[in-house]
Amino acid sequence: MRNPARILVVDDSAENRDILQMRLESHGYEVMTAADGQDGLDKLCETLPDLVLLDVMMPKLDGFEVCRRVKADQNLPFIPIILVTAKADSNDVVAGLEAGSDDYLTKPIDHAALRARVRSMLRIKALHDQVQAQAAELAGWNRELEGRVQAQLAELERTGSLKRFLAPQVVELVVERGDHSILQSHRREIVAMMCDLRGFTGFAETGEPEDVMALLQDYHRAVVPLIFEHEGTLERFMGDGVLVIFNDPMPCPDAAPRAVKLATAMRAAVGELSQAWRRRGHAVGFGVGIAQGYATIGQVGFEGRLEYSAIGMVTNLAARLCNEARDGQIVVSQRVGNAVRDVATLSPLGELTLKGLARPVAALNVEALI
């Protein structure tokens, strides 16, 4: 509400308008006047006063009709209306209230009553405006909160999808940067590590499904935290097979040593598990293959089911080396071996003839970390 309040006086009597204007202005109010109902309605819609003193008996539009039109217009804010008339009959008062007026004054107007009624209506107007402002502010907060919630849900969804294959610290870095472009298709040199369980296929064929599922759960619980600890990218699960890549999507200068360190940590963890498995009659071992080379990497799949995948000979080579590994062996390509000689002791395995490769591949076994 304005300060001072703006009051519109609508009366077809110039004398009445002058008297009301003088009395109201003496109390500090801003006063406008209109000479008939139509003029009053036009000025009300144009200036949106804080209060209207409205005569009933007027040409063109009487006060009742003006009142009805104002209250029916949804585009107008709340504007209290005091009907001012010489008609003091109770039926006229009821008619005025039913038309939408908020109060009633009879002529001749008592100055004290006028002042009291005006103050009362302006207090109501001020409270109404305050409630409306608070409601608008609350609605704005709600919209902002909804926007934040939606943004957080979207971020949680993106974060959840990233955590399926990235280490938590890498996910936090991607989310912090707000840059998911690194997950788009690109070509990069990576180190690929493939591992699986020796003897698992035979066990799965003869074992109870519940035993197979329990063993896989033990296995995954043991190796996945190690993958994330070494900041590897979990490319995929394939039953007992796990493919991990290094140097993507976040680059690391020590991809090959990191892969070998992860492999030895996984070998130790699965070695402890295999003792318990053997006590239950499950003869299951563990082997690893590691290769280095270029691949095309990015998200594949469809909306709602996207996976981060590496495509190239390097992942095939890692899988073939893994197939050659006996229980407890970590078989690496010559290139990986050259990169890890300072961190691991190696023994040559000679040249291996691998399925799908035209030429034999020199391979080495990682005995232990130095």
Account of the protein in words:
It is a single chain. The protein is α/β, with parallel strands linked by helices. It contains 11 helices and 13 strands. It has helices at 14-25, 37-47, 63-72, 90-99, 111-163, 168-177, 200-206, 209-229, 255-279, 313-324, 334-339; strands spanning 6-10, 30-34, 51-55, 81-85, 103-106, 186-198, 233-238, 241-246, 285-302, 305-311, 330-333, 344-352, 361-369. Strands 6, 7, 8, 9, 10, 11, 12 and 13 form an 8-stranded mixed beta sheet that branches. Strands 2-1-3-4-5 form a 5-stranded parallel beta sheet, with helices on both faces. Strand 12 and strand 13 form a beta hairpin. Helix 8 packs antiparallel against helix 9. It is rod-shaped and about 120 Å long.
- Sheet-strand content, in percent, reads 25-35%
Structural class of the secondary structure composition? alpha/beta
Radius of gyration: 42 Å
Question: Residue share in helices?
Answer: 40-55%
Q: Please tell me what the overall shape is.
A: rod-shaped
The biggest sheet amounts to: 8 strands, mixed
C-alpha end-to-end distance: 80 Å
Low-confidence regions: none
Return the average pLDDT rounded to an integer. 89
How many helical stretches? Answer: 11
What labels would you give this structure?
single chain, 370 residues, alpha/beta, 8-stranded mixed β-sheet, 5-stranded parallel β-sheet, 26% strand, rod-shaped
Short description:
The protein is α/β, with parallel strands linked by helices and 370 residues long.
